[in-house]
User: Which sequence fits this backbone?
């Protein structure tokens, strides 16, 4: 990418990842207006880009979570002071990385068993340090976490009794509900999931243990979580960038992320773009062409995307198209930089520091 600021994004070479800041600002505003007093902690596993986080910090957003240590390291390096690693950290090599983050930021990690607790405590005692931990509760996703109620209370009692460890609250992520389309079913299941989390909070509090934070939800369930009493914080990420799959369930947020692509071949009824699955994630389904409902992507190969074009005139060779991805987080992970645009013009180019990493 040339770095030619104020150029029209359509003059850029392709494939090129683009974030439309006008749309992103509206998504953020919609979220902030609906928070109902809850804290917004933004998930960096969707963004992966320090420049975008600095942009959000400039708008007053300072709490972030992430899935992996490499993401936490990027956040700490750019000055984020309040980081939740919403994941279990296993092994002394990783625990040492958490420990070194603490020179820059306040960091919390999740645990769901005694093994996690003892490993953190042993490390902390050996190196004269301490850790802030959240007990992760499985509120129906069937991934990490203790079951709600007594099993979580039992773990929390152990956390409170363990040397060099501070109990910082509960995390329960309702990942199984995020993309659910049936609204009635989703509403019911979401409130059940949050009730199991909040009831667990009350059980712990009734045992005399303070629960400083209860954090949950994502883009797909934010609307329900902000209504639930006993939840302090929501942790969505995709709402800022969005994709066509999430947009179906959450039309209040529009895709700000696109992959600019060029038409490189055409024949009757179809054309081919110069970006394929190495530039556009397809793990959640088929991407779409922005603003062109009659042009339907039907196949992504590594470096080509084939688009059926029967109801409208074929584009010319060299014409540009913006592809709305089917999974924004995974698409950010494929690119090394992203162009930030406003009113169709380039305003900045940001490296995506945490892309291509899984450590
Ligand atoms: C722990 C956790 N919280 C929240 C989210 C929500 O993220 P998003 O809003 O991008 O769906 C996720 C998504 O994977 C997650 O793993």
Assistant:
């Amino acid at each position: 990418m040339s770095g030619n600021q104020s150029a029209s994004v359509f003059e850029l070479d392709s494939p090129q990842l683009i974030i439309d800041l006008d749309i992103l600002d509206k998504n953020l505003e919609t979220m902030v207006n609906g928070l109902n007093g809850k804290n917004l902690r933004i998930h960096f596993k969707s963004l992966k880009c320090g420049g975008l986080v600095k942009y959000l910090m400039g708008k007053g957003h300072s709490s972030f979570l992430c899935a992996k240590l490499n993401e936490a390291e990027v956040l700490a390096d750019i000055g984020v002071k309040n980081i939740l690693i919403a994941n279990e950290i296993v092994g002394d090599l990783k625990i040492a990385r958490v420990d070194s983050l603490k020179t820059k930021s306040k960091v919390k990690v999740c645990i769901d068993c005694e093994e996690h607790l003892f490993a953190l405590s042993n490390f902390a005692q050996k190196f004269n340090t301490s850790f802030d931990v959240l007990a992760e509760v499985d509120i129906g996703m069937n991934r990490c976490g203790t079951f709600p109620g007594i099993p979580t209370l039992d773990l929390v009692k152990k956390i409170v009794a363990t040397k060099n460890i501070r109990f910082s609250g509960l995390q329960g992520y309702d990942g199984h509900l995020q993309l659910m389309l049936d609204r009635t079913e989703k509403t019911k299941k979401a409130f059940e999931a949050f009730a199991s989390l909040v009831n667990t909070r009350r059980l712990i509090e009734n045992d005399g243990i303070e629960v400083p934070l209860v954090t949950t939800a994502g883009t797909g369930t934010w609307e329900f979580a902000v209504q639930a009493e006993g939840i302090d914080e929501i942790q969505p990420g995709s709402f800022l960038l969005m994709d066509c799959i999430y947009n179906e369930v959450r039309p209040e947020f529009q895709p700000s992320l696109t992959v600019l692509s060029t038409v490189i071949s055409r024949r009757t009824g179809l054309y081919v773009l110069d970006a394929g699955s190495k530039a556009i994630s397809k793990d959640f389904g088929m991407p779409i062409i922005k603003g062109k409902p009659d042009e339907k992507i039907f196949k992504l190969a590594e470096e080509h995307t084939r688009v059926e074009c029967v109801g409208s005139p074929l584009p010319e060779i060299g014409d540009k198209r913006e592809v709305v991805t089917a999974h924004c987080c995974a698409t950010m992970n494929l690119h090394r930089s992203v162009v930030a645009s406003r009113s169709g013009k380039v305003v900045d180019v940001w490296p995506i520091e945490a892309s291509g990493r899984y450590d």
